[in-house]
Amino acid sequence: MQPIALLFALLCFEAKADDGYRLWLKYDPLQDASKRASYSKSINSVYASQESSTISAAVEELQMGLKGLLGKNITLVKSMDSKRGNIVLKIENNEKLSEEGYRIFSQNGNFYISSKSEKGLLYGSYEFLRQVQTLQDLSKINIESNPKIKLRLLNHWDNPNGTIERGYAGASLWKWHELPYVIDPRYKDYARANASIGINGTVLNNVNASARFMTAEYLEKVEALAKVFRPYQIKVFLSVRFSAPRNVGGLPTADPLDPQVRQWWKDKAKEIYSIIPDFGGFVVKANSEGEPGPQDYNRTHVDGANMLAEALEPFNGIVMWRAFVYKADPNGDRTKEAYYEFKPFDGQFHKNVIVQVKNGPLDFQPREPFHPLFGAMPQTPLMMEFQLTQEYLGFATHLVYEAPMFKEVLDADTYAKGKGSTVAKVIDGSLHNYRFSAICGVANTGSDRNWTGHPIGQVNWYTLGRLAWDYSLSSEQIAEEWIKMTLTTQPKAVATIKDMMLKSREVMVNYMTPLGLHHLMGEGIHYGPQPWLDKSGRPDWTSTYYHRADTIGLGFNRSATGSNAVGLYAPEIQAVWGSEENCPLEFLLWFHHVRWDKKLPTGKSLWDELCFRYYGGAEEVKKMQEQWIPIKPFIDKEIFTDVLGRLQIQHREAVWWRDACVLYFQTFSKKPIPEPLEKPKTTLEELKKLVLIYQMR
Ligand code: GCV
Question: Ligand 1: which residues within 6 Å by Cβ?
Fold first, then answer.
């Protein structure tokens, strides 16, 4: 071959770099030749007993996925192919299945995906593909699966101007200025990705909501998106601005007890449903961080939520009313406020209201105890709000797998009805027999080609869906599935990446906020360390409010001798968290002000333990970098290089966090950094300047 022809051939056959766009629905040819051959032999065609747009979406996905994975055309047949090897999508009654549940089994050489509804067929089809992608044995496949939580949502904090609050992966996915005329093909891929993990709703806009979304112009744009999402069984929801009747309705007030205001919302609901008949409902952030709400008119959260609920009720819409409220009280304890505000209202909300509660009582910190409202409102459905976007977890530059963090909260025992009353059972509705159940994650998606900025950030989106469907899945299992579907099936590489992911959350806690510390981050931007921050727009936006460092010790005393936030939990929990001796180290400084020289169960003093954790966290990131390098031959080059670069930033920043926190706390402890730890190479003054540079416009 001529050199030029050889070069041409090489260029043609060079594998195309993976830009991450296809997420976990990559469908590249299976590398395991024997599995591929065996699947190919047993799958020939797909047959659906009924037709609908959702069933077509399922069939299309099966055909596309299997074509890619097996390199074979899977034909859609009008009656079951007698040659066998059919994938049969079948609607049938099965008492063990809920409406969205499915069963997958093999019989007489065919595979059956059955469900009571088209929804289950869609979810079952994605599960079937997952089985192939993760190289499972299909010969005796027999899976029965029902979602544990009914509403499984993403919350987008996206603004009409295309920006995303706390978004680190580019601009908004929604091109409002082009809608409804231009339909970006990405909307369909977004729907496919969500359906593949069981997400069945999306809140399109920021909870700091623009009233514009209540205008006819915007509702038409919303409908254009709803139309794309519909076959994938994804309902759209909107965040609403409580003052919308004033902002866009021309009314002088938004008082929820004012008859004109009430009528305005009723008319608005009617208008919305006339445009989007399957609209899901509203999310409301009211009287929180300066957003308008019923308290502006001396009314309560119940007044506000119930007014909206009554407007939506005729159309089966729901109101997700957020409990993220806190007043600026320098002598108070922000972690108690939502509890005091909402607990007295238990049982007073309208039947289509669900109260949306963040996982912890503060604000998506690297580690928080579960929110004390979970278990405390037996007569009001509560839903979980997790944050996928890494506002406090190093944005899209730090590798942090969030499943262990979510599981820690879901598995936590509230003791509301005795041992075993886990947070998961509160939010799936089973503990208190709630009318409905829901969970949401604040999305980490954006217009970046790979959707989430950090290639491994995709797994946090994936995790939300998988845990919402079945919170009993382990972090290991979810990680393994995602790695195999997205990065590689090479066993050693899978094991290494999984190990890095599983420890990543704890590593981050150690270099950012070990031992129960919290809210030490840079002001406003929420990036980088600023533990010395003692003045801000509000006292509870400083760091000193939370860590309370002094010459005696460190930590916020929330025990009975302090703010008694621990008193909001069940007595069984108080007995553990409320005692400095019994409190697990991960929450020690969340609940206690501990002497610097206090000997901890590790055998070290508080000061030494703190230093070892900060140094250990930073060191672990270095190790993660080293672990990543040998997997190079087994994953896509572009993704390999991208993650490697981000790990380098993460290490630099872990050292930044470590040095800033250790040097700052040392000004109180007055103790040396213990041997053999190396002293920081920078000074505290230099680090203080660095944070200011980060915050410059
Ligand atoms: C959407 C935190 C974030 C805000 C966010 C708020 C909320 O305070 O920093 O950006 O606002 O939480 O959840 O409402």
Answer: 157, 165-166, 206-208, 285, 289, 324, 363
Is the pLDDT at 2 greater than 60, yes or no?
Answer: no
> Rounded to 5 degrees, what are φ and ψ at 610?
-60, -45
- Report yes or no on 46 lying in a domain: yes
Q: What is the mean pLDDT of residues 169-183?
A: 98
Number of the ligand 1 atom closest to the C-alpha atom of 291: 14
Question: In the listed set 90, 123, 145, which residue is the last one of a domain according to the structure?
Answer: 145
What's the gap in Å between 682 CA and the centre of ligand 1?
32
User: Annotated catalytic, 638?
Assistant: no
Q: How many whole angstroms separate alpha carbon 486 and alpha carbon 392?
A: 25
Residues 367 and 281 in one domain: yes
Q: Is the dihedral of CA 678, 681, 683, 686 positive or negative?
A: negative
**545: CATH:** 3.90.1330.10
Indicate whether 4 pLDDT > 60: no
Whether residue 441 sits in one domain with residue 386: yes
Protein residue closest via CA to atom 12 of ligand 1:
363
Q: What percent of the chain has pLDDT over 70?
A: 98
Both structure tokens of 171: 């601009």
Q: What per-residue confidence (pLDDT) applies to 8? A: 42
Query: For the ranges 4-8, 275-279, 367-371, which has the lowest average pLDDT?
Result: 4-8
Residue 195 and residue 119 in one domain: no
Are 327 and 248 within one domain? yes
Torsion angle defined by CA atoms of residues 506, 469, 112 and 30, in that order, rounded to the nearest 10 degrees: -30
C-alpha separations of 73 from 45, 62, 214, 528, 615 in Å: 8, 10, 46, 51, 54
- Tell me the pLDDT tens digit for each residue of 601-623: 999 999 999 999 999 999 999 99
Give me the number of domains the chain comprises.
Answer: 3
Is there a catalytic annotation at residue 289?
Answer: yes
Radius of gyration for the chain, computed over Cα atoms and rounded to the nearest angstrom: 26
Q: Is 363 a catalytic residue?
A: yes
Instruction: Examine the domain organization and report whether 478 and 533 are in the same domain.
Output: no
Q: Return the residue matching tokens 């503060």.
A: 362
648: amino acid identity, one letter: Q
What domain range is 31 assigned to? 21-145
pLDDT average, residue stretch 157-170: 98
Atom of ligand 1 nearest to the CA of 166: 10
The length of the chain in residues reads 697
The residue whose two tokens read 């019989």 is 107
The domain boundary, picked from 483, 500, 517, lies at: 483
Residue 183 domain-assigned (yes or no): yes
N-terminal to C-terminal alpha carbon distance within the chain = 58
In 44-109, which ranges are E strands? 45-48, 75-76, 86-91, 102-107
> Are residues 56 and 89 in contact, defined by beta-carbon separation less than 8 angstroms?
no
For residues 39 and 107, is the Cβ–Cβ distance under 8 A?
A: no
Beta pairing class for 102-107 and 142-145:
antiparallel
pTM of the prediction? 0.97
pLDDT digits (tens, 9 = 90+) for 524-577: 999 999 999 999 999 999 999 999 999 999 999 999 999 999 999 999 999 999
CA distance 646 to 454: 8
pLDDT band at residue 42 under the 50/70/90 scheme? very high
Nearest CA to ligand 1 atom 2: 363
CB 117 within 8 A of CB 91: yes
The CATH number given to whatever domain includes residue 322 is: 3.20.20.80
What is the number of other CB atoms lying within 10 angstroms of the CB of residue 260? 12
- Same domain (yes/no): 437, 547: no
Structure tokens, 283: 């999310």
Atom of ligand 1 at shortest range from CA of 442: 13
